[in-house]
Prior knowledge:
The complex is a heterodimer. By secondary structure, chain A is an alpha/beta fold. Chain A has two domains: about 5-10 and about 255-380, Aspartate Aminotransferase, domain 1 (Alpha-Beta Complex); about 15-255, 3-Layer(aba) Sandwich (Aspartate Aminotransferase, domain 2), CATH 3.40.640.10. Chain A has twelve helices and twelve strands. In chain A, the strands form three sheets. Chain A has a seven-stranded mixed beta sheet, with helices on both faces. In chain A, helix 7 links the parallel strand 6 and strand 7. Chain B is α+β, with helices and mostly antiparallel strands. In chain B, strand 1 and strand 2 (about 35-45) form a beta hairpin. Chain B has six helices and three strands, in the order H-E-E-E-H-H-H-H-H. The chains are: A alpha/beta, B alpha+beta. At the A-B interface, helix 9 of A face helix 1, strand 2, strand 3, helix 2 and helix 5 of B.
Amino acid sequence: MKKCYFDHVATNPLHPEVLDAMMPYFREEFGNPLSVYEYGVTAKNAIEEARGKVAGLINSKPSEIIFTSSGAEANNFALRGIAIARQNDGKHLIVSRVEHHSVLNSARFLEKSGFTVTYIPVDKKGFVDPDTVRKAITKETILISVTHASSEVGTIEPLKDIVKVARERNITVHSDAVATTGNIPVDVKDLGVDLLSMAAHQFYGPKGAGGIYIRQGLRIAPLIYGGIQESGRRAGTENVPAIVGMGKAAEMAGAEMQSRIEYLRPLRDRIIYVMSGIKNVYLTGGDKENRLPGHASFCVEFIEGEAMLLLLASKGIFSASGSACSSKALKASPVLLSMGIPSGLAQGSIVFSLGTGNTPEDIDYLLNEFQLVIKRLREISPYAQGWGDKEGGA
Amino acid sequence: MYSDKVMDHFTNPRNVGDMADADGIGEVGNPTCGDAMRIYIKVRDDRITDAKFKTFGCGAAIAVSSMVTEMVKGKTLDEGLAISKEAVASALDGLPAQKMHCSNLGADALKKAIDDYKSRQNKQDPQ
């Protein structure tokens, strides 16, 4: 059966050239980077080369990059590390409502530890309004954390404007850029952020490798205490093959970024164009200019997301949904609800996120099968003619 | 995640549709929580001769609806009332634990349809 993977926000396949770059560090070059003899030196050099490549991708200095195990770890590090380091300056944080769980749950942890957190709403397209951020600032505010782009609705946030607001008040700014790094230009100097999280598997690198940009001179408490790895900021013997893979993936993403974007955008726009023509199907998230290049997300009214995912999967089409039933927590996506989408409509959430392996023929196959799935599930739905007296509606 | 039987009833659901001349209709759930089911029954001499359903929900909810309509056909009203959620789930070779509560609406909807039939009968023949 044909297999079409449209869930690149979940993870990307490893690029074969990245795997080739990693392989020696699983085998003959297995050394611990702290060792003083040849094996250690080779491993240490490999990590530092990778650090340079990641720094090159986001326009930072190599010394401003700390490798982590994941984007989630980077987000935990940023929130907890800054909260601890700056607690004498104040105990208030601002985060948006469209953050990843690793940001939201770190914020909730800090609330239990004596900090207060303001959760900033978004508009119906998923945008954080810098003015709303400004109004949420108090004398106690030490950190603002706003994602660079939501992987659920693809909206690219006005980060530069939010940084401007923070600069007026000496507030640290963190951004979860897991969805954007390696996929669209991310320039930490241009954005002006103090901290930025990333994950290698979002740009054809390996799982188990993430990173955080920490602006030079910024004080931050470590998340993991131990040895002197990563300048003493992140202890633990380095995952050398994964870090090497992240470096290689970063190098390739930088070199191929424009061509990847130019390849993905028309595919994405074709999905949006065709689906927007179907009755009671609504695009969720940002407009084309402020949207991830391979990201098309919708709410399909009167049917449920998990049912769509499974019927599509039975045709070899793999996608994602923010519906309650498709989540382990059985709760409709907080991102969609925070955008003001009614909870019944949010159950019909579906997300297609494209990658360089998808072809125009894959898109035709998807569009054809998806329309059949919608028709079929609406035939089963009691609401195909409308929500009636139920509170589902748009 | 789902058993083969759930996938079979989900991808080829039996008895989907509306019933214009239904003798009883039962509706449970709500779109806001992700699952809602409507079941129609036809009754002759205290026996359920036909059943149809319409469901909004996940794969489990649709499979449960399909299975309960199959199970109830030919049963007496009392036998229909005796069909439990657990019986529907086990006829499907089990459901994932997190789906037992919210998606396993078939038995409840059936009970409501039978209650609806009985209350219509009572209105027609006031004692």
